[in-house]
Amino acid sequence: MEISIIGTGYVGLVSGACFAKFGNNIIFVDIDKDKIEKINNGITPIYEDDLEDLLLKYKDNFKATDNYEYAVNNTDITFICVGTPSRKDGSIDLSFIKESTIEIARVLKQKDNYHLIVVKSTVLPGTTKNIVLPLLEKDSWKKVGRDFGLAMNPEFLREGIAVNDFLEPDRIVIGSYDEKSRDVLRKLYKDFSCHLFETSLSAAEMIKYASNCFLATKISFINEIGNMCKKLSVDAYEVADGMGLDNRIGRSFLDSGIGWGGSCFPKDLHALLSWAKEEKKEAKIIESVIEVNRLQPIKLIELLKNHIPDLNGKTIGVLGLAFKPNTDDIRESRAISVVGKLLEEGAEVKAYDPKAMNNFKGLYPQIEYCSSADKVLNSDAVLIATKWEEFKKLEYKGKIVIDGRRLKEAETAKIYDGVCW
Ligand SMILES: NC(=O)c1ccc[n+]([C@@H]2O[C@H](COP(=O)([O-])OP(=O)(O)OC[C@H]3O[C@@H](n4cnc5c(N)ncnc54)[C@H](O)[C@@H]3O)[C@@H](O)[C@H]2O)c1
After folding, report:
1. Is 314 in a helix, a strand, or coil?
2. Which of the residues are catalytic?
3. How far is CA 109 from CA 75, 137, 149, 184, in A?
């Protein structure tokens, strides 16, 4: 199939590269000229396992451009994969969605054949039907169902293992305006062996939000239990293992620590909460999940102060800056509030992350960035904020280590304290 992908971030680029692997031809569209140039040279603008290999291998199956006219006219399906960030008040910012929809509609106006538009970005329930659809009809002067199709196909990939998640999903959710739109997506996903869950546009949008809110709830829940376990000298990981054996509960997303971050959970929970408030609906669980998560990284500093009460002038090492391992993404990383609190207390901070240091420098240029993980150990105490594989190999003997991520190998330290264990 001939597919155009609007927005070449984690979702757009990974989706396009994976669709190319299945023999489709892809035209990527972005407003960022630097990204376009990189993609056309087979270089990935983001770090993601296996992505560069895919881009190199299927180089002849895609091109990148900033030209909507070229992209929409030369394809049959357009996926909208632009960002849907939070506004300052937490509500969803749909400006990229609206801008890209209008651009697509302007090209549709001159196009004679049927075209399917698919929203893949995470948008609040009702957005595809009440915002995207009217914009498409108004600016194209065409009619949905007759001249063009419309679908909502939320994405569940996780950064760090995005290519694998895209290629081996648990399920694919297809919300569609009509049968014809659904048929096109059935054909596109025919080689995937997982369940294709077919539903309405708005239910597809809500499935994405409800899934993210539920997963974040599991983590905040186990962190609250973990904080109690710490007080009781009980290992929260043993508790999670015992709970997880119950099929109704499951073991995943029950690793306690300093909380969740990233580009999705924080903004999606805030967006749904903000919508609920506007609609005067209660969202007490989501509100608490966010609050537990806000306080959790600070527990790391509280523990540290049990061992070094005055941090002023002390050198504190921070291992890990990305919001999770295998990514360079620092959006809402727990390390941000950890480093912020250390600086507030007057500590000197030295940090290391295999991929995320450049991004972190934009936020905290004043801290010392080490060229390797072992250099961070040369500090008065070390905090573990992200569980990178390479941190397992460090020599922790003789050190003070406060662990936010349950790195068993660090237990050999002279003083070892875990946030929930
Ligand atoms: N990152 C994830 O792990 C993930 C997972 C599932 C769903 N999502 C959702 O997918 C969407 C995209 O997320 P992302 O992380 O890929 O975002 P991103 O910020 O990494 O990338 C978005 C891209 O869109 C481009 N863009 C913005 N406006 C444009 C326009 N008018 N025309 C063309 N390109 C434009 C930007 O330049 C950028 O390259 C969001 O709604 C997000 O919530 C993200």
Report:
1. coil
2. 264
3. 15, 9, 14, 21
